[in-house]
Amino acid sequence: MSQDINKLREMYRTFNKSCFILGASGETGKVLLQEVLKSQLFSKVTLIGRRKLTFEDAMYENVIQEVVDFDKLDDYASAFQGHDVGFCCLGTTRGKAGVEGFIRVDYDYVLKSAQLAKAGGCTHFNLQSSKGADKSSTMLYPKIKGQVEAAVEELNFDRYSIFRPGMLMCDRQESRPMEWMARKVLVPVAYMFPTAITIPVLVVAKAMLNNVVLPSEKKVELFHNKGVHELGELGETKEK
């Protein structure tokens, strides 16, 4: 499969596709941006966010940045026009933003962005969701994640890929004490059962990119934690 994925990447580059990334300042988003640029799969890369990000590496010099007000996204519809592929890594927590803030970011912002992307010509929308997402759940976090998955599906993209990774293994810049403790406790679990509960952020980013080049007859694809691991590891043996 290593040879196949590399050939698919080479072919994909010839399509001259463009992409946008939502949430590039977050843990997954910033790693995804790095992998997107390294892969050179896209002829144009645009970041859509609430503030302009500063980069020192020359690798980022051609990245386009669109600064928007997520509470007034209709005023920034032009930022979502002309992209073939969209990656959405937007997300916050109830602890950081409160109940209303969490719903606003993880549901309202995500859905509105997807609507504008569809209207702007995006054909493949990739959504980073979460393990356990369930629109019928009695718990807020999985319920909202599941509801926004379903709402975006109704937009009828040509291709819609949902990723439900487990606990993200990374060192966050922002302080999340409970999550930090959980990651520490899960380190031995991740070692013994790598695809059960946890997943490195880099693997999630690579999975999203690898999936883009893989041909699919499904309009809607759902990848649980194990599937995200498998996608993210495609081609790794040969490249090392």
List keywords for this structure.
single chain; alpha/beta; Rossmann fold; two-stranded parallel ribbon; 9 strands; about 45% helix; about 15% strand
Overview of the molecule:
By secondary structure, the protein is of the alpha/beta class. It has one domain: Rossmann fold. The strands form 2 sheets. It has a 7-stranded parallel β-sheet, sandwiched between helices. Strands 7-8 form a two-stranded parallel ribbon. Helix 3 links the parallel strand 4 and strand 5. The longest helix has 26 residues. The mean pLDDT is 90.
- Euclidean distance between termini CA atoms: 14 Å
Largest sheet: 7 strands, parallel
Category from helices, strands and their pairing: alpha/beta
Rg (C-alpha, Å) = 17 Å
What's the level 1 CATH class?
Alpha Beta
Which H/E pattern describes the elements? Answer: HEHEEEHEHEEHEHEHH
CATH topology label: Rossmann fold
The portion of residues forming beta strands comes to 15-25%
| Low confidence ranges | none
Tell me the total number of β-strands. Answer: 9
Q: Which architecture per CATH?
A: 3-Layer(aba) Sandwich
What strand order characterises the main sheet? 3-2-1-4-5-6-9
Provide the helix percentage.
40-55%
